[in-house]
């Protein structure tokens, strides 16, 4: 990922610095639009001389889009003028009314806003305006590029274009979709791809780049192994995990050894080989324990508990989930503790210990209710209690839980043993 981001950053920086092209049509998918916008923001922070204006609102139709952009610019102008006033300086000149006039063509309104923003640049010092429009979603691509087209220079560089760089985020394949626009003078076309295959290729390059530090190469290899495992390329992923395990054993990184072993276990579990999955998870216990890595121990306990439960070893499953509950307490993780108690209760219920299951679920409900920000988990817990109270003929508590599920006040629950109250 870092290599792809760096490649985009360098391309954007080069576009800003060059003097030949005015308009950059940067193709990327809607899924990658947020990353692209962040790279533009990072470029702004690293640039101390140029003025960046970034707009990320969705594009549906030209008129409403320019209207929203105008309001964004009004907000920026208001904030900047207040800051200047606090410093005892004169405010910026007002934004031209044309930008807000919905009767005018959207391209003319946009031109008015760009020209006004460019006029704010100091006359000396080579300052530039980078006007970047990176919508997170483009509903009508043809209309979007029709809005961009008037800004492609047709008769050479005009005075208003000097010191200006325009960026329009487009969907991938601009040259094929709009060849006339892409081929116009002073228009640059580029692509930003952060999809799975591009990430895989970039990480492969990083792994093979011997000029990089070993830690950086191993981090890329770890990401590559995870991607290969997720996409079912198990032989390739396994070889990469073994390389990583050897590296982390050599460097003495116990937490990462456990992480890799869990990765091997996850891959085996996904393939349906529960025996191999259990082997790898159990192998991870030693380095995770030596590292006192509570998060990794919790992960291992959750996985082993699930495997034990699936094969019907309820006593082992109860031990693993009880251990997970204890670890969640040490980690101060209410969500993990609620999840552990839910699973613990399910195992106890299946083992015929419904009395103990109610105690686990009541503990989970009390904690979720106290936290107030776990509504989905809380509803699941209450549903378990509903089932248990009905079987145990605990009708007062059953009614209280039913009322709470229906939106009533919180039920006051306190486990007091099985049977009817």
Explain what this protein looks like in three dimensions:
The chain has 421 residues and is α/β, with parallel strands linked by helices. 63% of the residues lie in helices and 6% in strands. It contains 18 helices and five strands. The protein has helices at 2-17, 33-46, 62-86, 106-119, 141-148, 174-177, 179-182, 196-208, 214-230, 234-251, 254-270, 274-290, 294-310, 314-331, 334-350, 354-371, 375-392, 395-405, and strands spanning 23-27, 51-55, 129-133, 164-170, 187-191. The chain has a five-stranded parallel sheet, sandwiched between helices. Strand 3 (129-133), helix 5 and strand 4 form a beta-alpha-beta unit. Helix 9 (214-230) packs antiparallel against helix 10. The chain is extended, with a radius of gyration of 30 Å. The chain starts with a helix and ends in a 16-residue tail after the last helix. Residues 415-421 have low confidence and may be disordered.
In short:
With 421 residues, the chain is an alpha/beta fold. The protein has helices at residues 2-17, 33-46, 62-86, 106-119, 141-148, 174-177, 179-182, 196-208, 214-230, 234-251, 254-270, 274-290, 294-310, 314-331, 334-350, 354-371, 375-392, 395-405, and strands at 23-27, 51-55, 129-133, 164-170, 187-191.
Keywords, separated by commas or semicolons:
5 strands; alpha/beta; 421 residues; disordered C terminus; 5-stranded parallel β-sheet; 6% strand; 18 helices
